[in-house]
Each structure stands twice: as structure tokens, then as C-alpha cells.
Amino acid sequence: MKTLYVAPWRRRVVLTSLLGVVASASAADSRQHINASGYDIYYGLVPAQVATQHPQSHEERTMHGGRLPARDGYHLLIALFDSGGARVTQAEIRATVAELGMAGTSKVLEPMQIDGTTSFGGYFVLSGEGPYRIDVQARVPDRAAPVEAVFEFKRR
Ligand SMILES: [Cu+2]
To answer: DSSP code of 59?
Structure first.
């Protein structure tokens, strides 16, 4: 019982650091977390420059095609956990990033290894003022309907 309680807490701390949250400490944790269809979805969207500077995301330098968007590039990172708290590593996760009222850009995120765990990431160019709407669709094994989550993002 004790283990079950401690594990999720530690998981969140690790994730918060991995997601490279640049928001102030006062920013609510819940804004980085969505529960949908019984799945826990953690997300981070940070300027690509920040993602590459983060000591734990050094893989960023070579991932997603090996080049960074020069300007207004943002790195989206998604981590997915099932209702039992197990990390989902086999999934097709598509993210659509769009300024409100615009068509936006949609792409399948790539699996990325950070400290031996699998998350999913990709670069997007956010050149407008925003706010942005981020649609996440995760197709996971043994589940017919995709797990869907939506969050809003404002550039700082
Ligand atoms: Cu990445």
C-alpha cells in the first residue's frame, strides 16, 4: 500500500522535471496533467531552445530529424499512463497544434527515450500570438477508441 502511494508522487516529480516546465512555481500542476478515459496524460510544451538546454533532454539535439526549427519552434512532450499507473510505451500519438480558429499542424509524435523511459515528442512552430489549442489523440493497444485530450497553450 505504501509503495502504491509513493510511486505516483515520485513519478510526478520526475515528470515535471523532464517536461522542462518553464512556468513559475505557482503555476498549477494540474495544467500539465489531464485525465481522460482513465488514462493520465502529462504534457509539456516549451521553446525548443529550452528543451535543448535541459540537461536531461540532451537527446533533443538529435531527435525529430536532427534539426531544430530556427524560430518559434516548440517542443511538445507527451507521457501516457494507463489506469493502473503503468507507462504506455506502445501508442500512436497524434497531436494537432492550432491557433484558435485556424487549421494548424498535425503530426504523429515520435517515441523518445529519457532516462530509460518512453515518452512521445515532436517539434511544432508556433509563430502566432495564440492562444493555441492542442489536441492529443492516442491510439493504444487493445482499445478501439482513441484516448483524447485537449489543452490550451499561451505563449509567454
Ligand atoms: Cu523530443
So the answer is: G
